[in-house]
Every structure is written in C-alpha cells, then in structure tokens.
Design goal:
By secondary structure, the protein is of the alpha+beta class. The protein has helices at residues 2-74, 79-99, 121-128, 184-189, and strands spanning 140-141, 147-148, 153-158, 167-174, 199-204, 208-211, 219-228, 231-234, 238-241, 258-260, 266-269, 289-292, 301-307, 313-320, 335-341, 344-349, 352-356, 364-370, 375-380, 385-391, 398-404, 408-412, 431-435.
Length: 446
C-alpha cells in the first residue's frame, strides 16, 4: 500500500545520505593524511638541504683562507722561505680537498616530490559509477557440464554478473513427479512444496559444488540461488539424476560350468571349465547355469542392462538370498525374472508365467529395480519400450540374478536410468495376462 511504499522510500533516502556522508568523511580523512605526508616530506627535504648548505659554507670558508695564504706565499722573494712555506701550504690544501664535500646539492628541486603521484582517475571512475545495489541476475545451471556417480552429483552453473555476487546457495530435493517441480514464479518467491524436504548448502563461493551421500539411480531437483546484500534470485529448477549402484558378477555364487570374465561383467557357458568347490551360496542346477551380482539391494532405485548377444535361453531378474540355487530363478516365491526360451518371452514369479510381446531380435534388456516403491520393471532400451512391471512387497534385500542355458550374457551396471523411463509413474506394459500356452510344455526350460 501507499504508506508502506512511502516508509520504504524514506528509509532508502536516509540510507543514501548516510552512505554518501561516510564517503565524504573518508575522502576528507584521506585528504588530510596525504597533506600531512606531503608536509612531512617537505620539512625533511628542507632540513637536509639546510644541513648541506651549512657544510658547503664551512668548506668555502676554509678554502678562502687557504687561497689567501697561497697568494701571500707566491709574493715571497726569498726562495728558501718560499719553499718552506709552500710545502706547508701544499699539505694543508691536500688535507682540505681530501676532506671537503662536493659543492653540488643532494636535493633536486625539480623532482623533490618525484616519489608522489596524485592520480585519482581510478577512484573518480568508481565514484562516477556509484549506484544503488540490486539483487543479482538469476544464475543458470549448465546441465551439460554436470556429472554424477551412484551417490554424488556435481552441479555447475554460470552467472553474468558474478562480480556483484557475495555467495551462492544450492538447494536440492528428490524429484517425486511434476507435483514438486517448482515453477519459475514460485522459485522467485521461495514458495516450495514440502519445504522441510529441501536440503540447503549455503555460502558457496565457486560456480560448482559436489553433493555427496545421494541415493543411487534417483532423480533430484536442483536450484542455485545467487546472493548479495540487496537480495537473491534463483535459477530455473533443473532435474539431475545419480547413476545406479555398480556391481559385478560374484564368482563365489557362480555355477561351476560358467566362466566369468576378468572384469566380472560377462558370463559364458563352459562345460570344460575348471571344477569349483561347492558352497551353499553357489548355483547348482543341472539344467540351468546361474550367477548373481556381488551386491544386495535394500533401498533406492537401480538400473542395469544385460546384453544377450546370441543367447536364446536365459532368465534375468532379482532374487532373495534365500532363493533356491538348484532351479531356474522365477520358479519360486523368492525370485522375479524376465525369461526367454527359444522364441517365447515370458515374465515369471512363483512358477507363474505371463507371455510378453517382445521383438524377436531383442539383444539388450533393461532392468529397473525401484526398491522403495516396490517395483521391478523390464524394458527394451533399444526401442524405448516398457515390457512388464512386477509389484513386489520387498521384505528382504535382493540380488541381481542371471541364468543361461546357452551362449553368454554381459552385464552393464552403474548406468543412469534412460530418460524414457519416467518412474515411478506406471507405463503400459506389453504383457498378455492370460496363461502362457506353453507353460505345460516348459519342462525343457526348467
């Protein structure tokens, strides 16, 4: 309202007078200090010059006496007396000239103050640029420069008036859908949904910051606030995501007739592989060869992909640690899988199967485990297709699990979830809920 505006205007006017008075006082103080320095330098130089003048006068007086004595000796006609007096005069002249000072002033009046430079052109420009301070322009997050690991995100941003910025503040929260994706107008007023859920990193002096301790495979919203004495402005909100938790195949759990690559990312059926000692954790089925990842997952969202190559008989999914190791995964209540048996593609859990419409040349399978939201989803990443989602009430940590009958599989872990996956919102799947027509004839796939 008008009274409030009048009060604010009066406050700014009073502040202007106060600031200008302080500047004038500083200039007066500096003027007085510099004048004192000039006066002190002048006194010092004049004192030094006066001392030199006195020394020169003494030297001149002594020289005058010697000259008069020398002229008197030159008038002596007695050669013996002349020689005796001349020797004495010569010694006195030599002593006088050896100890006398050069009659040239040490002080050059033309450059008596050459060590001073009264040039205030820079300060004049600063004073001419005096203006009221405004809040900085909003910074801009450079998404193409931002990097991530499975538990960190490094945010980079730029600002076109960074010299007027005293610090930055980074704010972030987990992205839970469009409901908490803040609009620009809301950001400018700081009206956040679920304010308590936002994490704030204050007093950042650089144009980048690394946030640690984030959840794997999770999307976050980031906002950067530029701050100075006049106020602050926020960047547009930006969505960034952490990568999934990386893992490798665990050789201690791998079937005896599987060969694991040196990098732990590829498994291959090998009947001639060396015998391995039997352990309760090792897969031991006679009609299937299984392996598992070297992690157990109990939180977060994780995505990995499996390259099947030319394999036509496999099962890929997750399982509890307690799942039986002597049968195909998915045939019990402790495992969930996407499976292929020659030309048939199914999803399986607790020995119940469902056909899935899949391109017959499927060479890569995407697996998304959203533990916190109790979902396991399968995707065709080459065609950006959602294949199926299991609704699971997880009660224990789960482990990525892989089983093959022929050829090989390769694991790609630690990946960010593809952009076409907009979890946790449910997408249509390519499943047919009817009973699989080949379930009764699946004995060869056990």
């Amino acid at each position: 309202d008008q009274p409030t505006k009048n009060v604010n205007t009066a406050m700014h006017e009073a502040k202007l007078m106060e600031e200008c008075d302080e500047l004038v006082e500083i200039i007066q103080q500096r003027k007085q200090m510099i004048a004192v320095k000039i006066k002190e330098t002048k006194v010092m130089k004049l004192r030094k010059l006066a001392q030199q003048v006195a020394n020169c006068r003494q030297c001149l007086e002594r020289s005058t006496v010697l000259i008069n004595q020398a002229e008197h000796i030159l008038k002596e006609n007695d050669q013996a007396r002349f020689l005796q007096s001349a020797k004495n005069i010569a010694e006195r002249v030599a002593m006088a000239t050896a100890s006398s000072q050069v009659l040239i002033p040490d002080i050059n009046f033309n450059d008596a103050f050459e060590n001073f430079a009264l040039d205030f052109s820079r300060e004049k420009k600063l004073l001419e640029g005096l203006d009221y301070l405004t809040a900085p322009n909003p910074p801009s997050i450079r998404e193409e420069l931002c990097t991530a690991s499975h538990d960190t995100i490094t945010v980079h941003w730029i600002s076109d008036d960074e010299f007027s910025i005293s610090s930055y503040e980074l704010q972030y929260t987990i992205f839970t859908g469009q409901a908490n994706f803040i609009s620009k107008s809301w950001c400018s007023w700081g009206l956040y949904n679920s304010v308590d859920s936002w994490m704030i990193v204050p007093n950042i002096k650089q144009n980048h910051y690394t946030v640690h301790g984030l959840q794997s495979g999770t999307r976050y919203i980031f906002i950067v606030k530029a701050i100075n004495q006049a106020g602050s402005r926020n960047s547009e909100p930006t969505r960034l995501k952490t990568n999934s938790q990386p893992f490798k195949l665990d050789p201690k759990m791998t079937h005896k007739k599987l060969k694991i690559s040196n990098d732990g990312l590829q498994m291959e059926k090998d009947e001639s592989s060396l015998k391995k000692s039997h352990t309760p954790e090792r897969f031991s089925g006679t009609g299937c060869y299984g392996a598992a990842g070297n992690i157990f997952i109990d939180s977060g969202c994780h995505y990995w992909e499996v390259v099947m190559g030319s394999s036509t008989w496999y099962a890929i999914g997750i399982a509890y640690k307690s799942a039986p190791k002597n049968e195909w995964i998915g045939k019990n209540a402790s495992s969930w899988v996407f499976s292929r048996c020659n030309s048939n593609f199914v999803v399986r859990h607790n020995n119940k199967e469902m056909l899935v419409d899949v391109h017959p040349q499927l060479k890569r399978l995407g697996v998304l485990l959203d533990y916190d939201n109790n979902m396991l989803s399968f995707y065709d990443p080459a065609n950006s297709l959602h294949l199926h989602t299991f609704d699971v009430t997880f009660i224990l940590p789960v482990c990525p699990t892989f089983t093959i009958w022929n050829k090989s599989l390769m694991i790609l872990s630690g990946l960010p979830a593809p952009d076409f996956i907009d979890y946790p919102e449910r997408q249509e799947c390519n499943c047919r809920p009817q009973e699989s027509p080949y379930v009764s004839g699946m004995k060869a796939c056990h």
